[in-house]
Amino acid sequence: MKSTLKKIVAITALTLAAFGVAAGTASAESAPAPTPDDLVVGVLPGVTYISYDKGGAALVSGAGTVLLVGGGYRVLDGSGAVIF
Question: What start and end residues bound the annotated signal peptide (predicted)?
């Protein structure tokens, strides 16, 4: 569990660092709002992990979002523009 949490924190830190360097030009989108059936966990102050009951997951912060979509990742900046 500790190792998994360390990996999540490391990935989050690297992803958030990428937000400061990259800029996106694609159309805006955002993580779907969680429902009562979804798991919502505060990972770090200002960073939330959401595991959706219907499948998929997201790491959300004020700087941006990482979505797990269809087996791949989508990285969004703070405005919802796709970076990666």
Answer: 1-22
Enclosing H/E stretch for 2:
helix 2-21
The answer to whether 68 and 15 have CB atoms below 8 angstroms apart is no
Q: What is 3-65 written as a DSSP string?
A: HHHHHHHHHHHHHHHHHHH----SPB--PPPPPTTSEEEEEETTEEEEE-TTS-EEEEETTEE
| Euclidean distance between CA atoms 81 and 3, whole angstroms | 31
Tokens representing 59?
């790491």
Claim: this prediction has a pTM higher than 0.85:
no
> Which pLDDT value is given to residue 56?
85
